[in-house]
Design goal:
Bound molecules: S-adenosylmethionine
Shape: globular
Order of helices and strands: HEHEHEHEHHHHHHHEHEHE
Structural class: alpha/beta
Helix content: 40-55%
């Protein structure tokens, strides 16, 4: 069996920003391969609650939890449900929370998980094991819904042409594999000078839709911020502009730096009176050149953080 691994991005910066202290109770909302979790547990004698929706991540975490008995608790679930998950475990306040968003290399690099257009596999793309697969999505939704997903979540300019071609093709033969879908997309979108595979944006869009990623992020930020004790920090690492926009707006709103919030904006759930948080990163923090050289996945990462003010 192939062994996969995950090199954490901006881990040291995130843990420095979280500033774990002895006796504190923290949340790692995206456990993944446990790289952040291990570093937090090593930084202070604290307790860490970790969440991941992927059962494979939970299984992999058992060894780390055994190495930190009573200090690391790993829970399977979605971050959009973190308030319930933590309350059920008796946790009602946090000294800090960190999210390292998106997919792990364990997920992306394993063809069986169906995220990869480089290696063929079943067209799945689910981080967890429930809900619609990418195959169900591309084989059933309407052409206009598909085009909207490719445009909104992939910023794909050829969204309408791709959706039309996919719908025509599925009349003859349904999509079952990642390579089949990638080839059909490549037949519509020609490679440009960037060298980026033409299927990249569409695969990102489908992944976000399958996992309802953006809705989860918005819900998670609101819930985690509500749980932060005075001095507690919320630290978020995002990997593309759609994620980062949500984080940036949320933090701007919570720290009193944004104009009038839309009532659909998760930040509007936080009182608009005197700000209860202060921003710790005005433009976000990005990896240095050495980290990007060592780990190309770090290229588009950005860290943002805020802190709850004393009551
Ligand atoms: C980039 S990885 C985290 C890597 C981790 N920081 C490390 O150092 O190994 C993201 C992880 O978060 C999980 N995840 C992403 N979105 C999630 C969500 N909405 N709810 C729960 N887990 C989620 C994924 O399954 C994946 O394992």
């Amino acid at each position: 069996m192939t062994e996969f691994s995950h090199i954490p991005v901006l881990r040291d910066a995130a843990v420095r920003m979280l500033r774990p202290e002895d006796g504190g109770v923290y949340l790692d909302g995206t456990f993944g391969g446990g790289g952040y979790a291990r570093a937090i547990l090593q930084a202070a004698h604290c307790t860490l609650w970790a969440i991941d929706r992927d059962p494979a991540a939970i299984l992999r975490g058992a060894e780390l939890a055994a190495a930190y008995p009573g200090r690391l608790h790993i829970v399977e679930g979605r971050i959009s449900n973190l308030l319930n998950l933590l309350n059920a475990a008796g946790v009602s306040a946090l000294a800090g929370a960190v999210f390292d968003l998106g997919v792990s290399s364990y997920q992306i690099d394993d063809p069986e998980r169906g995220f990869s257009f480089r290696n063929d596999g079943p067209l799945d793309m689910r981080m967890g094991k429930t809900g619609m697969t990418a195959a169900m999505l591309v084989n059933t939704i309407s052409e206009s819904e598909l085009a909207d997903i490719l445009y909104a979540f992939g910023e794909e300019k050829a969204s309408r042409r791709i959706a039309k071609t996919i719908v025509e093709r599925r009349e003859d033969q349904k999509f079952e594999t990642t390579a089949d879908l990638a080839n059909v997309i490549r037949s519509v979108v020609r490679p440009d000078k960037s060298g980026i595979d033409p299927a990249t944006r569409s695969f990102q869009a489908l992944r976000i839709a399958v996992n309802e990623e953006l809705d989860d992020i918005a819900a998670a930020l609101t819930q985690a911020a509500a749980l932060l004790a005075p001095g507690g920090r919320l630290v978020v690492v995002s990997f593309h502009s759609l994620e980062d926009r949500i984080v940036k707006r949320f933090m701007a709103q919570a720290t009193g730096r944004a104009g009038g919030a839309s009532r659909h904006d998760p930040a509007s759930l936080i009182s608009a009176e005197a700000p209860k948080f202060r921003l710790l990163t005005s433009n976000g923090q990005v990896p240095d050149a050495a980290e990007i050289r060592a780990n190309p996945r770090a290229r588009s990462a950005r860290l943002r953080a805020m802190e709850r003010l004393a009551a």
